[in-house]
Sequence to fold (577 residues):
Amino acid sequence: MCGIIGCCSNHNVLHNTINGLKKLEYRGYDSCGITFLLNKEFHTFKSIKRIEDLSKNINIDGGLAIAHTRWATHGKVSLDNAHPIYSSDKKYIIVHNGIIENYLKIKDTYLKEYIFYTETDTEVIINLIDYLNKKCTMLESIKRLYEILEGTYACLIIDKNEDKIYFIKNKSPLILGFSNELIITSDILALPKNTKKYYRLKDGDYGYITKDTYSLFNINDQNHFLFLDYYPLNYDISLKGFKHYMEKEIYEIPDLLHNYINKKYENRIINTLKNSNKIYLVASGTSFNAASLGALFFSQISKKESYAFISSEFQIDNTYDDKAIFVVISQSGETADLIKAISKIKKKNYEVIAICNVENSTIKEMSDYFININAGVEIAVASTKSYTLSSLVMYQLANIIVDNDYKEKLTDIVDNISSIFDVKDKIKKIASYISNKEHLYYLGKGIDYLLCNEASLKLKEISYIHSESFPSGELKHGSIALISSSSIVIGIITDPSNANLIRNSLEEVKSRGAKTYVISLESLSLDSDSIIIKDFDKYLSFIPISIIIQLLAYFTALNLGNDIDKPRNLAKSVTVE
Ligand code: M6R
Fold:
């Protein structure tokens, strides 16, 4: 989703600003822009294509710039709506991440005289600055935004008469970095390698940076600014011969699994889980699908009452038990829906364990306990290795809290998992058949149904083929009406206790003309199955299956020539509700 960066220096900042912007690309965007302030004049460049295209057109450089990658929320993708956005008199300019919920009311209350040139909610903020600044200083105007704006916002603002970048933050991430210049950005990944220290802004912080210094305040006047040492994040963003990050990230899974054989979890996390009587898991998208697996592991392996909730649907009431613990899962650590859910949980004083792939994240900060899945940076919008590893973390925890020894089973997987790529050609064959189809259904039961949910999400997000997953038993209660001779149904069978029932449902769709494919474990397979994999422990089969379903989505999207790492309309880090 949107990314922002601003740089102030005695040197030219084009290089660092554009480099930072490129590092924000993975979050997903549909337009981008940059503004330099030179001798009290703004120079703005925008593109509705990629940052490469934006860079080509920039013909100046300077010591002060703000830039943005936009993921459209209010207003179509267009040059006008791309940020930076001017105030109507062109005296101020802004980049903004987030959504202003009361923008129409603000327009009505304060800005009736103003002309608007964009369809964005952001333009309201910058005109409001113009309005407020007529009566007070720029810093006071920035502070007053907290009283007026409702919603989420991280903003960088320039007044063309001042060599400063003003900033304000509410519920959208913002980080201040100190390298050869002062940099303020929405994502720690965008900081240059020579950054020495950084500060993760808190809600209520505001201030400005200049070429030499910064001023930082908080609306509550708390003196809590904690500056942290910055260690260059050692992430490898080369494609290493792969065509796409998604493919590379799937292929990283076997190596990453090695680190899990002897993975240690903090005793206080283990004890907290042991002492809880209910485990509630909350997450979005693919992380929710991992959370569903987690709920199954905690209920079936640890015999704890466990439920998974979708973050955006999560409502906390008074029925949760005193001894309940909440586990939240997020690859990015910045998902707005989950952040909101955690706020609700914390208001009721429950403890939260975060399972996350980003150490310096808002979700880590909000939680009482943190488990880093250490998947390495995940760039493709479609989450792959993070799904597999966060599910594995929950499998391990579920076993550890009841003192089960799972190491032998895990070692078996780790030693054999690379052979899963041997079925690549079979996966490609299915992919080439489904690539020109419009609909596809996945069918499973129990753990296999949960895997089908992820298979279906992965396929639809990068291939744009309509895909749904059904619990096999539920099919005849309605969805079977969709089945015809043009239907494709993929069954996943890894659980002996459900295998026959899934087979029955597959027969039912076959007899109505559907073309079926089956992915199964050897001991549960039939000769006619499309992909048969070595038997692994029932609860660990999600590892090979996740790789297969991820590859199936990947090869299908590849056949279709889609932009696999940046699928349309999607963002890596969903920072708005
Ligand atoms: O960063 P998070 O794990 O919190 O993100 C949650 C979802 O937005 C994310 O999993 C999304 O569904 C991915 N595009 C799935 O591939």
